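Figure 3 (text version): C-alpha cells given as input.
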C-alpha cells in the first residue's frame, strides 16, 4: 500500500503550481476546472512518483497557520545530498523565504532544513 497523493487548498493556484515547478521540478497536468462549483485543481508529479494535488475554490477559509498545531504540518522533499539541502536552503533564503531551522542534523539523524514556503506552509528539505 502507498499514499497515492496528498492535496492542499491554496489561494493562488497558479502561483503554487509555479512554486513547486520552479523549486522541486514538479510536472503539472493541464488542470481541472468545474465551472458549476468554481473548483479548480492541478496534479503535480515529482521524480519518483509522488503527487501533490493543489486546489482552489470559492469561499475557502484561510486561518493562521501556527507552527505547532494538529493536522498536517509540512511536506518533506528528499533532494539527494547534504550539499543539495544546503544549496536549496540558501536559494530559498535568497528568494526571500523564511528559513525556520537548519540546515542541521536532527536528533533522529536527518540532515534537513525547514522553510516557510507558499502561503505560510512549512516545507522540509532533507537528504
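Below: residues designed for each position.
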Amino acid at each position: 500500500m502507498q499514499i497515492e497523493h496528498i492535496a492542499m487548498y491554496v489561494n493562488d493556484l497558479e502561483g503554487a503550481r509555479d512554486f513547486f515547478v520552479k523549486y522541486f521540478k514538479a510536472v503539472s497536468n493541464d488542470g481541472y476546472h468545474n465551472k458549476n462549483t468554481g473548483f479548480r485543481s492541478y496534479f503535480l508529479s515529482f521524480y519518483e512518483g509522488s503527487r501533490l494535488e493543489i486546489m482552489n475554490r470559492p469561499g475557502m477559509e484561510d486561518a493562521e497557520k501556527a507552527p505547532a498545531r494538529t493536522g498536517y504540518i509540512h511536506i518533506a522533499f528528499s533532494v539527494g545530498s547534504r550539499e543539495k539541502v544546503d544549496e536549496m536552503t540558501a536559494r530559498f533564503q535568497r528568494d526571500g523565504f523564511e528559513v525556520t531551522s537548519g540546515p542541521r542534523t536532527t536528533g533522529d539523524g536527518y540532515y534537513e532544513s525547514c522553510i516557510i514556503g507558499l502561503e505560510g506552509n512549512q516545507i522540509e528539505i532533507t537528504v
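The beta strands are 6-9, 27-28, 32-33, 40-45, 51-56, 74-78, 98-105, 111-116, 122-126.
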